[in-house]
From TrEMBL:
Pfam families: Lipase_GDSL_2. Keywords: Signal. This is SGNH hydrolase-type esterase domain-containing protein. Residues 1-31 form the signal peptide. SUPFAM superfamilies: SGNH hydrolase. It comes from Paraburkholderia saeva. InterPro entries: Ester_Hydrolysis_Enzymes, SGNH_hydro, SGNH_hydro_sf.
Amino acid sequence: MKPAASSLFPAARALLFAALALCGSVRTAAAAEPHELLIEAYGDSTTLGISCSGGHCGARVQNAVTYLQDALQSTHGWRVSVTNYGVGGTTASQLRDGTEHGRVTPWKIRIAASRAQIVTINYGINEVMQGQTPEQFYAAESELVSSARAFGKQVVLETSNPMPDGQLNAKLAAMASMTRRVAAEQHVLLVDQFAYISALPDWKSMMSDGAHPKPELYRIKAGQDFNVLDPLVRQMLERGNAVRASSQ
């Protein structure tokens, strides 16, 4: 004998209310645990995560920024978030001037509105491809760093990964030297990807084309990022915990 439909309603209502309560508790827990430390990664297509295979190039989820966030969250939990603001084909001067593809906000306005505590900056390859001089690159990166620091951001500069073409790579080496110079002059952290990767015996086999790494090289880049960023992240999180404890 089939039970009356009315006898099912209380049980169904109870299940519905329980499900809604569970959803509410999940939302409440998520809201109670916001990211405490925000990192924004700015750069070109090697920041975005372009990789090429079978004659097709496109953005991959297996990129250095994603690998970096995975490593930081494995160490510190969901308190740390890394946002990828890489844009293919762009230069440091375009970021400074707000002339990146699809974006029209100059850097000073953009960084003033940013909630990030840490920003990473990675350019150099497109400067070579577009015929900029090392001096022009130096001027653009210097302005990016000084503006970010003026708004209280911790800045981490990165040199580009090397390029397999010898002539282009020689020009890129000059750009990397300018990034090192800016880091030294403005006393900010540096991830010297160019020097580290250039010393790897098989780095060219980990390039998907003349500029973009394969996922395995992006993972190596993320490891270098983590080595430099993790002590800073740890210090900032501990400082935040100390401030909260003192205010309680």
